[in-house]
Amino acid sequence: MRVAVHQMTSGVLPAANVSEMIGAIEAAAQGGAVMYFAPEMSIMINRRRDEARLHICEEAQTESIEHIAEVASRHNIWVHLGSIPVVHGAGPQLANRSIVISANGEVIARYDKIHLFDVDLKTGESWRESSAYVGGDTPVILNTPLGKMGLAVCYDMRFPDLFSAYAKAGVDIITLPSAFTVPTGAAHWHALLRARAIESECFVIAAAQCGVHEDGRETYGHSLVVDPWGEVVLDMGTTPGLAFVDLNLDKILEVRQQIPVHQNRRAIAEPRFCE
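Given the sequence above, the corresponding structure tokens read:
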């Protein structure tokens, strides 16, 4: 089945980003894709949080979702919004929320990023996602035309327990929309995504942000699609755009029959320390 992956350099104004996404969704449908995938923070990237908050509200009040859902319905295509910032509960904190819209324009799944990006890199970059966001606590799986899909976002990829849970549940595809930094991307992006695909024996689709953004940050790009054998079947490099991939879903069963890790998996006891 054909999917479309959108690599973006999102700016600070949601209207401009949503307009670009709508054009890409229309192109994806015209190109025969059954599902479109956007990156993390697709509708807005703005590290100036006071300015960004002017454009963030509760999910039910987020007009961008309504506009994109209408386009999905009109063109009969599934849409993975990547992730967007929404007000969490009564606020003031936010959720980094992944949203999936069916081809009839209905929001059928939402997942709040569990692992928040709180790091201090030796390059001088320091990030505290938890200063504004609340982490989720629940993995989410949904049925799609591509099979059973498990949802995750960016930094989640460093925590294999999440993907072990998805593997045990028998997912066929894991999505990882991202906005990776350049230093961590160059060091770990390909290795982590290939590892998640190999250990889960499923496809991994990771739409990414790329380039230098309006707010001054720089993201790594290299949107990837990785098959269950760990082969990279799409790497979009560092240029924004829309790419198509035809997924051979038969590869999932083929790999699982060769190396039946799900059947071979054993519960691991607490380690015993030998003095």
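The chain has one domain: 2-264. Try to locate this feature in the token string yourself.
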